[in-house]
Design brief:
This protein is mainly alpha-helical. It contains five helices and three strands; from the N terminus they run H-E-H-H-H-E-E-H. The structure holds adenosine-5'-diphosphate and magnesium ion (MG). Adenosine-5'-diphosphate (ADP) binds next to helix 1. This is Cellulose biosynthesis protein BcsQ.
Length: 123
């Protein structure tokens, strides 16, 4: 399994867009592999693009983050804050198969959706 981190402290340099493109294109050209995007940015722009773009994507993020528990990175972090040393065995329940929301992306593309709540959790 290969893991890639896309990081830069400065905003507006293309992290979100590059993540969307690289993940989608890799998934399209490697249909027998599963690709997971773990969106750790509170702005969640990669998640928005993967889930359908500015309007549909933002609506999808709102829907996922409004679930109980939120089906986003914030939901997972909440689990870990409550019991940091106990294996919750619950990571998989925070996954979204992007195709179930946006049929323009490959079926082997999975997402742990970003969430603005991460900003609060980080502090
Ligand atoms: N290769 C590119 N060519 C043209 N515009 C780009 C490219 N990559 C990103 N952009 C645009 O630049 C802006 C910032 O990119 P974004 O991915 O949101 O940056 P970051 O996540 O680092 O803040 C966005 O409007 C995006 O659409
Ligand atoms: Mg970004």
């Amino acid at each position: 399994m290969a893991v890639y981190a896309v990081w830069n402290n400065k905003g507006g340099v293309g992290k979100s867009y590059l993540t969307f493109q690289v993940a989608s294109e890799y998934a399209r050209t490697h249909p027998n592999q599963r690709v997971l995007v773990l969106d750790l940015c509170p702005q969640a722009n990669s998640s928005s693009m993967i889930l359908g773009g500015i309007e549909a994507g933002e609506a999808a993020i709102e829907q996922l983050s409004g679930m109980t528990p939120p089906r986003t990175i914030a939901g997972y972090i909440n689990d870990r804050i409550v019991s940091p040393y106990v294996d919750t065995h619950s990571g998989a329940s925070y996954l979204t198969q992007a195709r179930t929301i946006n049929n323009a992306v490959p079926a082997n593309l999975y997402l742990i959706c970003g969430d603005e709540e991460l900003e609060m959790q980080a502090s």
